[in-house]
Amino acid sequence: MRLLVFAGVAALAACAANADTIKDGAIQVKPGKWNWKQETSIVGIPLNEENLECLIPEKARITLSKLAYDLDEGCTVDDVKPAPAGYNFKLICKGKTKGKADASLIHTDKSMTIRAKGSAQFLGLPAGFSMKADATYIGDCSAEEVAKETKRWKEENPS
Q1: 72 FRET partner, CA 20 to 30 A, in 96, 98, 100, 146?
Q2: What's the rounded Cα separation, in Å, for the pair 143 and 150?
Q3: DSSP 1-16
Q4: Contact, 102 vs 116, CB < 8 A?
């Protein structure tokens, strides 16, 4: 998904220029309905997924850590470096899927592209791993979708 960079992210990138790496990266996207397509390959075996998601304003600011966690609860990011229109980072997974990958995220306010390539454990053995994910803004969410997602967000964030 290409996302607009907030002033806070710009400030974060400016600080990162001094430090070479930052702990996490964040992007801002346009709230609304998004189409998400993901193609993952382990040892050449394709695993594809596609879904629609309604992003309410409260969820339109996305961190790399949150994206990693959404891939697998055991995934985190490290060695985050600002790049043109996004970030380069290490994806580290220690949960159900174990492995490490070099990854990148490029974005605008209406699209996002993630690419990752590395190795993962497959049947207890190291195996090649690659992932391509693309998300595209497709329009407004319905009132029902917004109400459902707002209710879910409030339940997950009671404070």
Answers
A1: 146
A2: 10
A3: -B-BPPHHHHHHHHHH
A4: yes
d(CA 95, CA 69): 10
pLDDT at 46: 83
- The two three-digit tokens of residue 159, written as one number: 């404070």
Residue among 96, 68, 91 at smallest CA distance from 79: 91
For the chain, first and last CA: distance in Å? 29
Q: How far apart are CA 159 and CA 154, in angstroms?
A: 8
What whole-number distance in Å separates Cα of residue 102 and Cα of residue 88?
A: 8
Instruction: Say which amino acid occupies 126.
Output: P
Q: How far apart are CA 138 and CA 125, in angstroms?
A: 40
Model pLDDT, residue 154: 94
pLDDT mean values, one per 10 residues, the chain (159 residues): 28 35 85 94 85 94 89 88 94 86 95 93 85 95 96 90
* pLDDT at residue 19, rounded to an integer: 40
How far apart (Å, rounded) are the C-alpha atoms in residues 32 and 54?
Answer: 5
CB distance 37 to 133 below 8 Å: yes
Residues sharing a CB contact under 8 Å with residue 32, sequence separation 6 or more, in sequence order: 54, 55, 137, 138, 139, 140, 141
Q: Which tokens go with 91? A: 């994806």
